[in-house]
Design a protein that fits this description.
alpha+beta; 22% helix
């Protein structure tokens, strides 16, 4: 399964200073790829609205 994190400005991730090197995104994507069986060419899109490590970009 292809895991995508939304970067459309609807959540915290697109605005976060850690967006390019986020351990939460890395670990989430790794866990999902290990535990979710792939069906066809499906894509899972995730939006993170609140994050304990969020630091707003300028």
């Amino acid at each position: 399964m292809d895991v995508k994190f939304s970067v459309q400005g609807t959540g915290a991730c697109p605005l976060c200073l850690h967006r390019s090197d986020c351990r939460i995104i890395r670990k989430t994507a790794r866990q999902l790829s290990r535990n979710v069986k792939e069906k066809h060419d499906e894509v899972m899109e995730l939006v993170i609205y609140r994050c304990p490590e969020f630091e707003e970009g300028k």
